[in-house]
Amino acid sequence: MRGRILTSALTLLERNPGTRPSTTALADHAHVSIGTVYRYFADMDAIVEELRLAAVHDITTRLSSSIGRAMDQSPFDAMVTVVEALTSAFEAHAAVMRASYSSAESAFGDAWAEVEGPLLPLARIIPARLRPDLDDRALDDLVFITMGATASLCSRIALLRPPGSDRDALIATTARMLLAAFADAGTLAT
């Protein structure tokens, strides 16, 4: 029953992006009584929070898997792999992200912090490979900045992309931008 209510809530969120259904609308859609909804969840906030936690888990899993796939790829292909995976994960959970946060641009905010923490050791691998000259502190700073930029750019592609935009071109541009962040400043100045 709990799964049925969550599935119905997700369906309603996807049908009406950016708005939360009432518990009454949810009960009607799930073909259950309002009492049944309240037996499992205190309110719509609790339902959206459970959906958000599931989304965070899935985003973390997808991103972790993409980092693993990217390990043996060329730097550009590795970046495309990671950017594609994160953008796809954000797209898959767009309805929940929109319902969880006040604006689409901040949709990766709190959820991103939950995703980022467990991935920090993995997130260091590609930058460390590209910048073996950096000490641990400089590498951690670079990873901190690029992880935030990656989240922001991928959420913009997934949630705010203008109609008619070329998704693949945006992903490739994002990959090039992130690779530029990993370049040695001395090589960029020449």
TrEMBL record:
InterPro entries from the UniProt entry: Homeodomain-like_sf, HTH_TetR
PROSITE patterns (UniProt xref): HTH_TETR_2
Segments forming domain HTH tetR-type: 1-59
Keyword hit for NAD: no
Gene3D superfamilies for the chain: Tetracycline Repressor, domain 2
DNA-binding region: 22-41
Key words, A-Z: DNA-binding
Protein name: TetR/AcrR family transcriptional regulator
